[in-house]
Amino acid sequence: MYDAKMELQTMPKIQVYNREIPHNSCLVFETIVHRFSSTWHVHRDFEIVYIESGWGHIQYGSGVKAYKAGDLILLGPWIPHEFLEDSLNHHSVSLIFNRDFLVSGFFDSEITKELRDLLDRAIEGMIFHGQDNDYFPFLVRLIKTESGLMQAIHILTLLIQLSVNNRFSIISEHYDYHSDFRKNQLKSEQVLRYINENAFRKLLVDEVAKHFCMSRSTFTRFFNTYVGVSFSKYLTSLRIQKACALLHSTPQPIINIGQDIGFDTTSAFNRAFLQLTGKTPREYRKGGGQVEKAG
């Protein structure tokens, strides 16, 4: 049995969990195991964990708090944490998302100030207690079973409910959020923002490395560590996501789409598109019912 009063251990290594979440999207998954355990780890996204069954303690930053069935836990990005389960037959639902899971800049508007304050507070770790919040199971069930727009609406509804809820416990109030790891996390967010803003023109790794005052090799190691994929893979993924949207929503010629999203040649665009989607751009468009305009 874990003793919550024990002195916090100094963990020798933090594992970085990198989950590939599509831009303007989120990830929902269930964990159902007889004996649950996790490692001391971080990830670059926000996380909501709803405890369906089981109990234990979460070590988060410099704090430790107990959780039990029915509790909902909101965690901020890049803060190391570990679940220390005391029971058997664990069942939880996890939601992984970033600030742009709806649309880029959504949480920066004035009308979403309460939600922005909630996400800023999440860096301390928040446990919303189930006995005081009987709407948790209902909303989590909807998030788990729906997809697309309806799922996004239910997630937003849950965040709104949490933003006006004052029945929670803070896990870690005094963690050093300005540690080297945190500084690197902030830099990685700046790097991703720069890439996202310039992804659809010719963009080379040397340019980005120079912009952030790093050598090519240092930048490559930094990007792989804090983003979890290579620069080229991340950039290509952004471009292909944009291409999919254009293929579905416009009659723009395929050759123009490839050029507009940053590919030098149509063959390079076709090859990258096929590798990521399993279809050629023409096959993808045909499946979506969009007819290409001649030209």
Automatic annotation (TrEMBL):
Transmembrane regions listed in the UniProt entry: none
InterPro entries, sorted: Cupin_2, Homeodomain-like_sf, HTH_AraC, HTH_AraC-typ_CS, RmlC-like_jellyroll, RmlC_Cupin_sf
Superkingdom to which the source organism belongs: Bacteria
GO molecular function, one term: sequence-specific DNA binding
Domain HTH araC/xylS-type as annotated: residue spans: 189-287
Kinase listed as a keyword: no
Alphabetical list of SUPFAM superfamilies matching this protein: Homeodomain-like, RmlC-like cupins
Cited Pfam families: Cupin_2 (PF07883), HTH_18 (PF12833)
Keyword field: DNA-binding, Transcription, Transcription regulation
Protein name: AraC family transcriptional regulator
